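User: Once you have settled down, look closely at the record that follows, taking as long as you need, and be ready to discuss the fold:
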Amino acid sequence: MDELITQYIPTQWSQVRYMARGYASEVSRAHSFGLTKGHVYIVHHTEQFSFHTHLYLMEFPDAPFNRAMFDDVPDPEDI
């Protein structure tokens, strides 16, 4: 039986690190907003769809970014 693979979806105030990966058009768009590879951003909110998730960042609360372009930054309390 196939197992459902689930991905952690960040919640508001979670931290994510921009890794500049994904479709070239999405990376280019992210760079046009000023996102910097390796920089940590704070999640404003998310929108989850069937096959992808959009992250909205505190710095850009009206601009969706593909979740796949980011890594999670662990909460120090969880380490």
Notes: The mean pLDDT is 87. The chain has one domain: 15-78.
